[in-house]
Each structure stands twice: as C-alpha cells, then as structure tokens.
Amino acid sequence: MSVPATAKSIAPVPSGLSATRDARAPWLLAILFAVAAAASGILLTGVSVWFLGAVALAGLGPAALTFNFHTPAAFVRLFALSKTACKYGERIVGHRAALLDQVRRRAGLFAAMAFAPATRAVGWQLGNQDRLSDYLDDVEDVDYARLRVTMPVIVLLAGIAVMIVATAWLSAPALVPIAVLLLIIITMLRRAIPRIAQAWMAVRISQRSAGRYLGAALAAVVPLKAERSFAKVSGLAFAHFKNVAAEQWAQRRKFAMLDMAAGLLGPLAALGVLAAAWHAGARGNALLAPAFLAFSWLAFGETTVGVARIVLARIRERSARNGLADWNAGTSVAAASPFSSTALRQLVLMNVPRRDPDGRGLGAALNLTFDSGLPTALIGASGAGKTTLLKQIAGWIGDDNDGRFTGDGVVLLTARRRAMSHLCLHDAAILADTIRENLFAPGASDETCWAALTAVELENRVAAAGGLEAWIEQDMLSLGEAQRLNLARAILSDAPLVLLDEPVEHLDSEQAPRILSRVLSRLNERIVIYSSHTQFDAIRGAQVAL
Amino acid sequence: MLLSNEPNAAARCESHGREPSSSAVGTPSDASGALELARAIGADGLRATLSWQIARTLLRLGFAAGLAIFAGRLITAGTFSGPAFLGAIAGLVLSSGAGLFADLAAARAETRVGNGLRVALQGALAKMSSARIRSRAAGQLIAGLQRHPERLASLAIGHAAAKSMLAAGPLLAAMAICLVSWEAALALLLAIPIMIIFFALLGGAVRSKAATQEHAFGRLAAQFSDRIRTLPTILANHALAREHGKIERRMTAYADSTMGVLGVAFLNAGVIDFFSALAIAVLAVFLGLGHLGLVHMPGFAGLELWQSMFILVIAADFFTPFRRFAEQYHIKAEGEAAANELDWYFGDAAAASNVTGHDGAKPFVSNDVNRFDAAELPPTGLIAISGPSGAGKSTLLRMLAGIEAPSSGVAALPRLTTGGCVWMSTEIYVPAGKLSDAIAWNCASVGRSALRQAAESVGLIDETLLPGGLDARIAEGGANLSGGQRVRIGIARILISDRVVFADEPTAKLDPTTAALVRRVLTEVAARRLVIVATHDDRLIEVADRHHSLTLPKQRQTAIAA
C-alpha cells in the first residue's frame, strides 16, 4: 500500500515561474501565427487589388512596358503562401498549447477535487453519467477558453486597431460610418451579453431540472409503469426540456442579429473608404492606396463573422468557472502524516454522535470498543446510520471534536484516522485500467494478487479476461463481480483499520457468508468493522445493533 | 471565423471519446431511425434555410458586382458611379438581411427538430417496458436526452444545409464570373477536382492515423472523466498520488498522439486555405499581366478593371462554402453518434425482449408459473411469491402488473386495465412538496382527514423525524426520507386507495417495527382486496392466504455457482 499523499506533493499550484513561462510560450507563438495569418490574408487581397489598379492605370498609357510587375506579383505569391502556412501554424501551435494547458489544468483539477469535502460526503454525484457529463462540459468550456476566446479576441482587436489607424491616415472621413457601426455593435454586445448569459444560466438550470425529474421517473420506473403514471412524471422532465429549447431559440436569435451587424463592418468600411477618398479629391493613382485599404477592410470582414461564437464561448467559460468553483468551496483538510504499519490493537469510540445520511441526529451518542482479531458487524435497517458511522470512523465526515476516537490509548483525529484506515465503500467503482491497478496494491507480488482474487472467487473470471494485466472497465463487470473485486482490494490493503460497508451486497445468499468469512480471516490481525442488514450465523465475531 | 472547429472536435475526444456512445445499439441504416425522423421533421425548415442561404449568396454576388464596378470606375474612369455605389450598399444590406433570415430559419428548424425528437422520445419511453428502460444506467439516459436531440438537429439542418451549399455556392459564384470571363470561371472550377483528390488522400491518411491512435491510445481517451467518476474509490484506497501521476502521464501521452492526428487533419483545412489563397494570387497576377498587355490569354486580357476586381472578389467567396463545411466536421461526428444513441429508443420489440443486463429482466423459467392463471386469482386475499434471488419473483410480479411482456403462459391481471393498481416497494416515486401531496400523489380526491388517518396509522406523523405533520416538507426525489419513511408512504398510499396491491420485497432492509407494520397493513388490506407480494420474508409468507415458491432454473443455478 502506498503511503497517503501529502497535500503538498500534488497541490494544484504551478511549481514555479518557469512553469508559467513554459505555459505561455506556446500561446505567444500561436497568437503570433494567428496575427500573421490574418495580416497575410488582408495584405493578399489589398496588394492584389492595388496591383490590379496600378497595372490597369499603367496599361492605359505608355508606362505599360516599363511597369515593374515582378515585385508586387512576388508579394502576392508570398502572402498567399504565408497565409496558408501561418494558418496551419496557428492551428497546430494553438491546439498544442491548448492540449498542454488541458493536461496541466485537469491534473490540477483532479487534485483539487480530491480535497473537496463533497468527495468524501454522502453519495458521489459525479458517479452518475448525467452529472459527470455536466461537469465535463464545464471543464471543457474552461479548457478551450484561450483557443476560442482569448486568441480570436486578440486578433480581432489588433486587426480593428491597425485598420482604424490606417483609415485615419489615408481616408479619415470614412471613420464616421465605421465608428457609427462599431458603436452599434458595441451597444448590441453590451445589451446582449448579460441577457445571453442569463439565458445560458436558464438553459443550464432547466437542463438540470429536467435531468432531476427524469432521474426520479427512471429510478421509480417499475412502480410508475405499474401504476400507469410514468408518462405523467416523465412529462415534467420534458416540459423543462421544452423550456431549454425555447431559451436556446431566443439566444440564437440574438446571435443571428450580432453576426449580421458584425458582418456589415468590413464591406461597409470598404465602400466608405473609397467614397471618402474620392470626396477628398483623390483621383487616378492617388486612389490606389485607398483601394488597397478598402479591400483590406473587405478581407478583414471575414474575421469579424465569428463574433457571436466568441461571445458564447466567453459566457460559457465564465459560467463554467463558477460551476467548477462550487466544488472547491470547502476548506481542504490538512494532510496526514503517513501511518506506520504497526498494528492497532484496540479502537475506542466515546460520545460519537449518531447521524443519518443527511446529518440529522439519530438517538443517543455511541460508546463502542473494537478489538483486533474480532471483526465487528454493525447490524441495522437501512437508514440506521451504518454507512455514516463507518465514514465517521474513517475520518471522512465529522469534525475532530465530534466524539472521541482513541487507538491503543492515543487520540486519533480525523486526518490520522483517514491515513490509517481502509474504507471499502459499498458503491466502490471500477477504474478503467488494468486489473492489477484496480487492486491498488502496487507493491504486491503476482502470487499475493492471485491469492486475493481466489479468496473472492474471481480467479477464473480474471484468468478468462486475460490475467492481471487485462484492461477492465466498469460495465464489463456485474455488480456482484465489482463488489468482489472491491473485497480483494480490502484483503490486499495493509491498513491497521479496515472498514467494510455492506461487504456482501449483490452477492447471492450462498456465496456471501463463504466469501465474507474468507475476507475476515485474512484480515485477522487488523481491526475490522463491517455493516450488514442481515446477520450471518456462520461468521464469528462481535455484533453491534444500530 | 478564425479557427476551424474540426480540431476542437478531435481534442474533445479526450473527454467524451468513449463514454456514452461506446455501448451504442442500433444501426444508422435503421429504417425507423432517429436520423430519418429528424430529417422528416426538418424537411421544410431545411428548404427554408437553403432558400435564404442561396438568396444571401446571390445578393452577396450583387454586392461584389456593385463594389467592383464602383471601385473600377472610380480608379480608371475617374467617375463616381452613384448607381453602382447604391447597388453595392443595397446588395450588402439585403444579403445581410438574407443571411439573418437564413440563420433564423436554421435556428427555428433546429429548435423544431429538437422538440419533435423529444416528443417522439417521450412517447417511446412511455411505451417502452420497464425492463428495457432499466437495462441502461439512468444517468446515461439523462445525459443523452439532455444533449442528443440538439446534436442530431444540428446534423439534420445545419450540416445538411452546409453540405448542399457545397454544391450551390461555388456553382453560383462560377456562374457570376462567367458573365465576365468564362475562362476564369473554368479555372476556378478546375480547382475543385484537384481539391477533391487532396481531400481523398488526406481523408485516408487521417482515418488511418486516427485508427492507429484509437488502437494505441483509445483506452486513455477518457481517463480524466473516469478518475473523476471513481474519485471516492481512489481516496478510499489511498491511491491519490499514484493516480494523479498516472492521469498526468496518460493525458500527456494522449495529447501527444492527438497532436499526431491533428497534424494531418489540419492539412484538410490547409488545402482549402491554400487553394483559396492561391486562386487569388494566380488570378491577380494573370489579370494584371492582361491589363499590361503582356499576356494575351483569352478571358484574362482586355478586361476592364472592374471586371478583374469582380473576378478577384468572387474568387475569395468561391471557397467559403468549403470552409463552412469543414467547420461542420465535429457537428457531423457528434450528430451521427447522437443518432446512433437515439436509435435505441426507437428499436423494435424484438430488441426489447433481448434485454438481459444485470439490472434488467432475469431470464424467467419456472414450472410454477402455470399455476398463475391470472383469471383464476381470487378477488381478495394475500398471495405470496417466494424463491431464491434470480428465480424471477419480481419479473412475475411485473408480468402480472402488465408492464413486462408475458411469457410462459403468464398474462396480466385482466382487471388492471379498468381499476389500475398500487405498487409498493422501496423505489416508489415521491414528489417534492408536502407530505400530504406525497401520499395522495396518485390518488386524487382523498379528503384531508382520510389522509391524516392514513399517515397517522403508518406512523408518518412524527415531529422529530419529519416535522410539520401533513405539511412536512419533502425534498426533491424524497431525498430527506429514510428507507423506512419511504416505505411508510407507500403503505399509506395502499390504505387510501382501493386498487389491487403489488408489493415487491416490501419488508426487506426494514427495521423490525416498520416490517411488522407492513405485514399488518398488507394482511388487513387483503381482506378487502387482492394483494400480491414477492418476498423472502418468512413471517409475511406465513400470514399469506396462498404461497407460491419459485425455484431456480437448472441453468441459472450453475451460472451463479460458477
């Protein structure tokens, strides 16, 4: 068994300045590529038009034969190639940077989630696919924010700034229609963003409500179908889905308006620049520079079309950050010092409050003594607080002053109990990994692993799957097989305190006592406490009725 | 649009790759499939969207013509052409308006398709057997219903429109250029077959790269979400540090292999960029040489400036539909995955009866069932069905209630069709609200005094455990109820109704007091009504009027022993 991690070794903070600099360098390069690609595209159109105008004017006169067309033609080809190459570079470098960020962020997020109190509390919400997908949507919205928001916004703002400066220099009066349109777009954005953000919140809320109602209907599908009421209850969920669709439709109307306004900017500016230059008296060759600028605006217009998408990505990022922050709202518990493998002979509970899963009190406080070598069964009906008590003993829930736990005369605070206990959750999950990794015993030999698997009657199943190195996933195992694998983990643990929650759930009535007695005999030297709602006559040990 | 969305889709595999869709059933070619349904609902909307998109393209060509004529005359003739200027403005405004209507039409059609799909899914769920519904994890169904209809709608409308514009857009642009120079139009059109050859070559390379990646790294695609899902287990096994290091390494490995695929996949977008940039460059140079009189190629020489500007502006637009379509790549992938998933809902009855998932129906074989001639069941009395787990007690109960396809001669109780039933188990539906609403939920027109009486007789009026009496607050899904309280609500419902009672393991996992209460109420009620229970509670079997014991079929006995 590996030593429990200290918070420090995996804390989600960057490990120094060099790490931050490393993270930024690819982004700077990506932005450089993006700006160069946009500039090449704009220059390609601008130079091409200037070239056409220049040769057309030259072609009218005797200058045609002396016109140096090689230089502009070379530039046109250069911009065409650099546009393609920079665009490719932007995509590659941008995505590499985003993926690097993603790995770093997600590893940090994983560590942060591990310290969130909700992780050890009752029920693991993210064990459900719907809540997990919801969470992953948030993670992804933040993951790609730089790629979808920061980078396009920088290119857009840089482009607008350069274009406006060039316009002010070459054809200042054209700034009037441009400024008016920009003002309109900015006003639209200022009005639309809060509303779209609200609509997005409403979508998420309705989406979750629909999920909850649907979850309730699906959990009770047999009673509801039998009573012919399933349609009534699932109808509540679908009503919320309808709200989601209505909100999204409203949102998309706003986006369509925004995109239309943004799409007008480039072409309108192009016409404005030409008209203003004409009215300022420019004629013939003097119009070539304004034409260059005008068609640059036209090419720049391509960039502005994605504004609505950027706005949505930004709104989703903000809402996702809030959603993720909720997970880490609690205070993290201080890290425990690693436990020494010395055996624990006796655990005494004094004045430990009994609670139901929601934290409400359940009768008088408990005073119990557990001895090593004498497994203790906590027997009680569902809702009697068995799981809660096991989690209290394991230091997963409750404060340090919630009752008094002493081991061999030494007071054990929650962090210490966490470190020294193996908690075998009744809804333990199977990791998508090899069977060996799923046993959580990196130091154990093959023989030890196989012995543990044999004890829980999984040896044939594992051999058929391809041995210890075979890859397994949750849905490859039945509930009973998953539970038995979970018991094998307990056998391989070397924690002095082993807590088993409903160890024989999902096992059939003949197999249950057989496997349980084997598990208990292998944990002979340890303090073992397990919960069950039925008693097994064949199992020796102490009993506590809850 | 700065970035094609295609890469995001590939990167997205990291989180969503092999999750819900890995267990997809149904084939895309299914005749009664979700995609066909989506297309049928969206047919009108798609036509409207396409019409507006074509209008936008035409008007945009008008704007390009206006701008080219205006700019060309301004420079060469030195005249301010008012009609061209106004024409350009009109073309711009009208094409923007048409674009707006195209966006709105697409959004409206996608909303309609999403809503229509959900109505169909709601109907399919209502008709589906409980066993089939339970063969899939609820969370997976919920996550799918939250996302799949919209994704499929995007495939049926947005993607389909982009695909059609792939043909219409370049064709319209080429026709417009034809008005000026058919040779230039031909040159642009010639680029298409060359591009298609590149796409075919790259497509093959991308597919083989992606297949290699899936083979080598596919398992690592969803490691992050897997470790988040299993986080409590990791903590319980003190494996945080190890798993943290592992996911970091695996995510890095997967990111590296993803970049390998993206490097080739981006070439696809690169081909479009290359040809559109090259077209402008080549046309500009040739047209320029034509103006100078240095080349005498027909279609490129002797043009007015406005004509060559017109060709240049439209050449840029010529490739836009390709770019738009490439951006839809991830919409296609997501939409097809969604269609596959949703096909499960519209699967036929044959598939429905094949369900043998661990949460689904157990194979039900027993000689005893012949004694269950539903028509012979007495009008009143307590009938107990017992047997080891796996013998099919619950399945028999569901068959009698008429919610599972009958087999082995067991038919649903005939009188259920008129009177209905009450189903009691620990998983009954408890709506949020007051306790009185939770009890009377499916039993309209029960007076408050009758409710109070029922609640009191089952011990639900308990100020310490559930304060507030009949007005006690019940959280959503009955989350603040213990198992015992939930069962008591079920018992109270039996008391206030007059229907046939089905009870599935009504005393399992209960404390002795509640279990005794359940037994008492069931026997009391059985004096006036038919009560059928599936149970292994000996004391409940003792008080039953009739007892049927199911045995494990031979096959299944060996299966469990193995």
Question: What is shown here, in short?
Answer:
Chain A is an alpha/beta fold.
Account of the 3D structure:
The complex is a heterodimer of chains A (546) and B (562). Helix content of chain A is 61%, strand content 8%. Chain A has 546 residues and is α/β, with parallel strands linked by helices. In chain A, the strands form 3 sheets. Chain A has a 5-stranded parallel β-sheet, with helices on both faces. Chain A has a 4-stranded antiparallel β-sheet with strand order 2-1-4-5, with no helix packed on it. Chain B is mainly α and 562 residues long. Chain B contains 21 helices and 7 strands. In chain B, strand 5 (500-504), helix 19 and strand 6 (530-534) form a beta-alpha-beta unit. The interface between A and B is large, with 172 and 158 residues.
Number of DSSP strands of chain A? 11
Overall 3D geometry of chain A? elongated
Spatial gap, N to C terminus of chain B: 60 Å
CATH topology of the largest domain in chain B: ABC transporter transmembrane region fold
Instruction: Output the radius of gyration of chain A.
Output: 34 Å
Helical segment count of chain B = 21
Strand content of chain A: 5-15%
Give me the CATH architecture of the largest domain in chain A, please: Up-down Bundle
Assign a percent range to the helix content of chain A. 55-70%
Tell me the number of structural domains of chain B: 2
User: Structural class of the secondary structure composition of chain A?
Assistant: alpha/beta
Highest CATH level, the class of the largest domain in chain A = Mainly Alpha
What is the spatial order of strands in the main beta sheet of chain B?
Answer: 2-5-6-1-7
Query: What is the β-strand count of chain B?
Result: 7
Overall residue-averaged pLDDT value of chain A: 88
Strand content of chain B: under 5%
Principal-axis shape of chain B equals elongated
Major β-sheet annotation of chain A = 5 strands, parallel
Which architecture of the largest domain in chain B does the CATH hierarchy give at level 2? Up-down Bundle
Helix/sheet category of chain B:
mainly alpha
Low-confidence stretches of chain B: 1-31, 349-367, 556-562
